[in-house]
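Is benzoic acid placement plausible here? Inputs below.
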Amino acid sequence: MKLFYSPASPFARKVLVAAHETGAISRLETELAAVTPVAPNADIGAANSLGKIPTLVLDDGTGLFDSRVICEYLCSLAGDTALFPTSGDARWQALRLQSLGDGICDTAVGLRYELALRPEGQRWAEWIEKQRERLNRTFTQLENEIAGQVGTMTIGSAAVACALAYIDFRMPELEWRSGRPALTSWHETISARPSMVATVPEG
Ligand code: BEZ
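Reply from A.M.:
I modeled the complex. Tokens:
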């Protein structure tokens, strides 16, 4: 099976972290794919008409997407229930945290496209400001919630760890660590895991 990915994408990174954590990485072929909203990738289009990364193409040609589906598929393949707890409070906590992490990524990637791709004269200053406010509110929510999760790797912590690293990578001026010592310490611990070290963003 082949994963189309970009080393800059936090969603692709979450998939790769899950692949490393579960051992599924040994079964994964990876192919770099450059994609933006105005330049979809034709190779991906055949497997995913949305033309987005990450897309996983199975050996029978089936395309799996988005990152949540791919992560759950890789975990089921590897028989792993640590990243996606199967039931109870642990499951909903992991999925909820994943939604927070993915929500940071949706917001930050949208902001990145606005700032890096949209012609300067067409940018919408109020929208940009509201996205930054949304991100800051979410960093504060995580500061208040995440301290109890130190040392636990679930799909939720993978999503948040990749999201915060993407902020460092593309918009360090947001200074998410400022006034958030619990989140800073949590991120430092989780970023030292081999799965995180092996997937540091580039581009
Ligand atoms: C980026 O370059 O920031 C990026 C690339 C692919 C997907 C998301 C973000």
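Short version: Residues 2-78 form a domain with the Glutaredoxin fold (CATH 3.40.30.10).
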